Structure formats: structure tokens, C-alpha cells
Amino acid sequence: MTADKAVEAALGALDLDTKARLLAGQDMWTLPAVPAIGLASLVMSDGPVGVRGVRWTADDPSVTLPSPTALAATWDPDLARRAGRLLAQEARRKGVHVLLAPTVNLHRSPLGGRHFEAYSEDPYLTGEIGTGYVRGVQDGGVAATVKHFVANDAETDRFTVDNVVAPRALRELYLAPFEAIVHDARPWGVMAAYNQVNGVTMTEHRHLQTDVLRGEWGFDGFIVSDWLAARSTTGALRGGLDVAMPGPYTVYGEALAAAVRAGALDEALVDAAVRNVLRLAARVGALDGVEPAVTALPEPVDGAALAREIACRSFVLVRNADDVLPLDLDSDLDSGADFDLDSGPGRRIALIGSAARDARILGGGSAEVFPARTVSPLDGLTGALPDGVTLTYAVGATPSDEASPAGPGFTLRAVCREATGAVLADTPLPTGQIQWLGTDLPAGVTHEKLHSVEINGMFTPRASGAHSFGTRGPGAFTLTVAGRTLYDGVQAMGDEADPFEAFTGTPVERGTVALTEGVPVQVSLRHTVDRGRPRPLPAVVFSLVHRPPLRDPDELIAEAAAAARAADTAIVVVATTERVESEGYDRTDLKLPGRQDDLVRSVAAANPRTVVVVNAGAPVEMPWREDVAAVLLGWFPGQEGGAALADVLLGAEEPGGRLPTTWPATLADAPVTDVTPTDGELHYTEGLFIGYRAWDRASGPAPAYPFGHGLGYTTWEYESLEATPTTARVQIRNTGTRPGREIVQLYVAPRADLAERPARWLIGFATAEAAPGEAVEAEIRLAPRLFDIWDEEAEAWTTVPGVYEIQAGRSLTDSRLRVTLELD
Ligand code: BGC
User: Is the CB of 625 under 6 A from ligand 1?
Assistant: First the structure.
């Protein structure tokens, strides 16, 4: 039987109640099975850098790839496709049918809290990377869910904000990646965003979901709400939303069946939504008797190796004065180091920074997954440095003095008890963080039976001094450390608009205990489950938090500067924190938290060969950038980040990335800094002019680094360029001394200011590899509609005739060759 026939047969066998149930989550991540028609329970999971699975815990780890900003920095859709295949493999291993990724909202403002989770400020690059990713996931027979449709470009008031966007900007920017992916990769899922667009909640947006996505673009997958985004039974179904997640309390299910019975909704609309779910089930092999869309799976992928490869390919070397990188460990260096090279133990490297030891490998919120291992920069360099090279480590500065979920040094378990005190479960915990949502509970535990959860175990301090302990999240707690009760009370719940805020709420310190390095102590945090408060879904969410002893910040910096002075090369890893880049809130500035700027300045003053590695998913201000020898943007580099960093610093690999987003020097220079709605509305007043489209026309200061910028370890000559309206050929030659990979970028610039267009925009790119002296030709397919604009009056695309210059080069501002095309 063909899939279509099987879907119709299954649909015909369902009664109204079952159909209504099938459109609603039965728990946090799954839809109900319907054995009578051979339908298995469809399982969904986040995304996008790994596959978390149905539990928000580390007991079923996932390969963790670099952040989406990093993937986009590779400018390589084929690599994105390989990432997608790996994720499909992980999904299959965990019984997941639907991956809730990729995120293809745009970098409208660097303040966007989930900037790390989206690809770029440019819709074409976003669409190309997203297409590769979706193809890869679906090559593995797993559904991709392109999210968040649409204009979820910031987090402030994300549940309610009305993003007011003119039709032309909506079409040419925010819808464009979705449209390209639907066209080129045929995704099986799309996720409707929380926000409104032009006055209509996205889950109810008939025009965008039904007329545009399904009608104009021919999308034939399922549309799922973002989690808790569906608010109206009739509004959502009429608007084209197929599935309301999560369950068990949703506006679909029983409420949907009742609305049909009351005559408020036509059952044909329910059937249309169920058809989309059954088609999804057929595609992923969850409907008996139908051959899934993919029967021959791709070759297995080595996840750790791929994570390392992507990380190397994503690192963007934005500055490399005097070719300080790759580090030359063999030749005598004149660094000004105040030790005697002849009598010293050979090359010395000073590694500095809290994130060099405790790497921040991924962004926070729903994108969080749990890797089986992480390689920090310290681990990576320690493993890679040859004999005779000395590596020292200094913290230098801590990005945050705030307590955070118990991590390094803790060995913890969660003991779940019922009211009688009887133990329901006793399970290991990788960190002091508990996030049990819906039925995602340890085996043997139910919300009905669960009365208390105790996080207990041992803590072995890495340093002597006053250690602070505390709690995060609302409810009743008893906190005991080394036999002392630090807290026994109730933390009230704030008045939160975002129901997921408990994940990211403020940690509260409850007391300090003097501890000795290396001497373990017993720790216990007991939490009594709160039953009084109505919630959208049953949940147990709280954390044991810890802060190591605070050292004098000036002393820490002085120590690091001394280490730098005694070394040939200083490598400083600076980072943002989970409280800066995560989900549910936006950033308030772009500064590196804590004293990290002072640290870099002091280290740079102590050693001219200072290399700064930026461990952040989004732009940060780097006021010292001209005072250091090299700056390498390392993103959130995934589980193998430290190994990849060693590869690139030592020259085993070239840093392959180019900026997918303009890097401003200061927040004040950034074109869009308003992410806070006024009276519930956020107006995209800048129209088409976000990212480089805005920088290119502004007369103000230039950015720190332009879109597309990034250095490798060789040099390139651009030799020839030919272009037609559909393809271009660019010949380049490697003029350096080592093999390299170049990302050839093509931009189009209209000669006249036609139809209020940006000065130029990206229309194609390709990677090309060449040995020293070798020339290669890149053939580049140009973006469709590269001469088109969205005509708001005609409500259609229209080609703008005129003279256009095609520019080929190394970045937006480093054009090497130009040709013109005339369009009548
Ligand atoms: C996020 C989605 C995510 C979902 C499930 C939401 O809060 O916005 O991106 O897929 O939660 O975790």
C-alpha cells in the first residue's frame, strides 16, 4: 500500500476522540500510540547540537556538537548535512522520531539570548546551512522540525510579544530561510513560535501557517506548537496548527473533541491535522505496514571525530599579528619572557582563564544536552603538546561570582521518597541540577507518589577557603553541608511570565563553610515537592548551587600576568556564562562578565605573544583586540572543543571559520539594539537593514570584524571571475606555503539605489581546497531571486532590472574581483 493510502485508511479507522487525542502531547515529549491502527507513539526531542532524548538528565548522554553559530561559521552545507546525519543516528539510538531543530531565526540583534542557537544575520547563509542540516537529519529517517516559525529573534516576553514586521522584511529576511529549507530540503516538521507576528499569535496564524507555508510553499509536514505556545482550541486549529505540545494539559485533546461536538469546529479540520501527523508517522516508520521514507541508512558516523572536525572548521581567526598562530614550538622565540631560554625547560605556554579548565561547550535552555565527556582547552593542550613544552595554568578571572549548579568536585545522587519516607528511587546525578518534567522521572517514581527529593553525596574542594552553598528554584528546602544545616525554609515562587523560568532563576546562597582542598565533605539538599501550585505540567525543578571561595580579583590577575611573563606564549580563554547566553531572556550588554577584560589587558601587557580564545556563542565586546597578538573566536565548541583548539593552535588544522554575523566593536555601534517590547509590541523599524545590510550603509563606526571575515594559515590570490545570473566561476590560487581551504564569497551590489535595497548582499559561496601554489576553480550556484524584491502592493516577488556588480572575495568588505551583469 502506498503511504498516502495507508494514511487515509488509518484516518478512516479513527473516532473523533482518538483523533483529538492524537493531536495533543500525552506528556512532555510524545504523542499517544494508537495500537488499533498500528501507530506507535511518536517521540520528539531537542536539538540542535545533540539529541537529549526523553529525559532531562545525563544518564543517557548525547554526542554534543558545536553551537549552531559555529556550524554556520563553517559556511559548509555539506558539513551541516554530516552533522544532521550524526544527529539522526543519535535520535535512532534513543528511539526519537522527531528532532526539534534547526533554529533558523535570524541574528537581528546581538542581544538576542538565543543568538548562539541560530545561524546568522543573513537569510541566505541561514537557509543554506539549515538545508544541509535538515537533509542530513532526514537522510537518517528522522524528522527535522524547523523552528521557530517565525520572527522569534529575541527572548524578552517571548510568550506574548507582538513582533510588528513589514511584509517586505518578513519575506526577504525572516521567512526566507524557512522558505529555502522547505523548497530545498522538504522538512517533515515546522515548529510554530510563541510570539505574535503583526497582531496574530503564530500558533493561530492562518495566513503564515496555512496560506504561505502550506499553500504557497507546498509544505506537507506537520506543524507543532512550541512548548506551551498553543492557547486557543479553535484559533490554533483554524490557524493550521496540527499538534499542541507538551501534554497532558493542552488546548487540543478533549477540548478539541468537545469543540467539534459543540459545532465550533469542523471535523474536516481535525482530519487534516491528523493526516499530517499520520504522514509524519509513515515517514519515520511509526505506522505499521508502511515503508518508511528511508530504508537504506547512511554509513555510521563517528560522533566525537565529527564534533572535533566541525569545531576546527568553525573557529574564526579574526586577528593574527605577525602570524603568531600556529604556535611555532620549534624555533627560538624572542618573546621578552623573563627566563633564560637556554637553561629553561624548553617552550613554555601559559594557559589562562576559568573557561580554559571548565569549558563552556554549549548554550543553555532547551538546547542543553549532556555529553559523555568534554575536552577542555586544558585537557586538549595537555594531550597535544610535545615533550619539552611546559604548560602552566592560572584561573586569572572568574566570569561570574554567582553560585551555579554543583559541578566539578561533586559526586551526587538523587534519592526520591514517598511521604512515608520509603525510597522510590536512588539515581546518580551528574550535576546539582534537577529538571524532571511531565513523566520524565527516574524509574519507579510518579508525581502522585513523590513527596521529597534529596540530592546528596560528597564534595571534594579544588581549593581551600569559604565555600558557599545554596538553592535555585522555589519550594521547601533543607540544606546541610559537613554536618551543618545552612538553610531550612521555603523559597517563594516569583511572579513569572515564562513558565520555564525555574530553569534559569537566580541562585540563592544560603551560607558558607570553611573547607580544605582535597578533603571531602558530605552534602545534602532535601526538597519537598510543592503540590499547592497549579502548573502547566507536573514538574520537579530545582538545583543545589555552589560557589568556590572568592579570591581577590587583583591577585588572580597578577598571578596570571606573572605566568604570562614567564612564558613564550600566553593563551587566554575568555567566556560568557549561562546567565548571559541562554533561553528565556536577552542579554543586556555585550561585555565579558567579571574582570575578564582587565585580565586580558594585564596578560597582554606582560606578554606580546598573547592569544585570546573567545568561548561565546555570540558577539562580545573586545576592547583590547588591537593589543593582543591573535584573537580566535571559538564559539561554544561542543564536547571535543579543547581537542580542536589544540589542533588549531598547534597548526595540525587550519581555523576554517568565517564570521556568519558581523562582530560589532561595541553594543552602541550595533544597528539593532532594541529587543524589549513597548506595550506588548516590538517594531522591526529597521526594515531590511539588519546585520551587514545596516553596517554597509551606516556612516558611523565600522564593526570590529565584518561579515564573512576570517583568516586561515595560508594566503590566496583571486585570479578570475565569470558570472551569469545563475552561476559564477571563481579561480583562486593558494599563494602560501601550506595547504589551505578558502571560503569564496559572492555578493551582489546594485549599481543604483534601486527599490531601497541594501548596498550588497550575499548570493553564493563555496569552499575550495588547494595545495601551495595550486589554483582551483570554484563553481558557485547563485541564490534564486537574487535580483528580486517582495513587492508589498502586488504581494508578489518582482525582479528589479538594472546593472548589478557581482563581487567575489574573502569577506563582505574584502572583495577581490568584480564583474557586472545587466538585467533588463
Ligand atoms: C523552546 C523550543 C524547544 C522546546 C522544547 C521551548 O521552550 O523554545 O526551542 O524545542 O522548548 O524543549
Answer: no
Residue 473 sits in a domain of what CATH number? 3.90.182.10
CATH number for the domain spanning 267: value is: 3.20.20.300
Regarding the beta carbon of 19 and ligand 1, being less than 6 Å apart is answered no
Give the Å distance between the CA of 584 and the centre of ligand 1.
10
Asked if residue 345 has pLDDT above 50, the reply is no
In a domain, 336, yes or no: yes
| 89 shares its domain with 176 | yes
Outline where 662-796 has alpha helix (H). 691-695
pLDDT over 50 at 543, yes or no = yes
Reported pTM: 0.95
Q: Is 105 touching ligand 1 by the criterion CB < 6 Å?
A: no
Same domain, 455 and 481: yes
Report whether residue 227 contacts ligand 1, using a CB cutoff of 6 Å: yes
Ligand 1 atom nearest residue 584's Cα: 7
At 412-431, the pLDDT tens digits run 999 999 999 999 999 989 88
What pLDDT is recorded for position 499? 56
* Ligand 1 mean position, distance from CA 81 (Å): 22
Catalytic residue among 226, 242, 647, 696: 226
Instruction: Give the bridge partners for 809, in sequence order.
Output: 745, 815
CB burial of 137-152 (b: ≥16 within 10 Å; e: otherwise) equals bbbbbbbbbbbbbbbb
- pLDDT tens digits for range 290-340: 999 999 999 999 999 999 999 999 999 999 999 999 998 875 554 444 444
- What pLDDT shows up at residue 502? 56
Residue in 771, 768, 802, 773 with CA at minimum distance from that of residue 788: 802
Q: Which pLDDT score, from 0 to 100, does residue 532 have? A: 66
Find the length of the chain: 824
Q: Which domain holds residue 501?
A: 406-547
**Average pLDDT in the 439-449 region?**
88
> How far away, in angstroms, is 508 Cα from ligand 1 center?
26
* Rounded CA separation 761/776 (Å): 24
- Cα(613) to centroid of ligand 1, in Å? 30
> Does the active-site annotation cover 488?
no
Count of domains forming the chain: 4
Mean pLDDT of the chain: 94
Residue nearest to atom 11 of ligand 1 (CA): 227
In a domain, 692, yes or no: no
Strand 521-528 to 452-459 pairing: antiparallel
Hunting for cell 548535512 — which residue is that?
Answer: 81
CB 654 within 8 A of CB 648: yes
Q: What is the 3-state secondary structure (H, E, C) of 196-229?
A: EECCEEHHHCHHHHHHHHHHHCCCCCEEEECCCC
pLDDT reported for residue 708: 98
What percent of the chain has pLDDT above 70?
96
Indicate which residue's Cα is closest to atom 8 of ligand 1.
226
Which atom of ligand 1 is closest in space to residue 145's alpha carbon? 10
Q: Do 133 and 226 sit in the same domain of this protein? A: yes
Instruction: Say whether 123 sits in a helix, a strand or coil.
Output: helix
For 21-57, how does the pLDDT look when each residue is reduced to its tens digit (9 = 90+)? 999 999 999 999 999 999 999 999 999 999 999 887 7
Q: Is residue 301 part of a domain?
A: no
Q: Are residues 172 and 30 in the same domain?
A: yes
- Indicate whether 273 and 134 sit together in one domain: yes
Residue 741's pLDDT band, with cuts at 50, 70 and 90, is: very high
CA–centroid distance, residue 798 to ligand 1 (Å): 36
Question: Is the same domain home to 387 and 444?
Answer: no
Pocket test residue of 49, 227, 440 for ligand 1, highest count of atoms within 8 A of CB: 227
Whether 566 and 611 map to the same domain: the answer is yes
Atom of ligand 1 nearest to the CA of 101: 10
Mutation choice for ligand 1 from 55, 99, 100, 243, CB with most ligand atoms inside 8 A: 100
Place of cell 486549529: 237
Tell me how far apart the alpha carbons of residues 44 and 137 are, in angstroms, rounded to a whole number: 13
My answer on whether 88 and 49 are in the same domain is yes
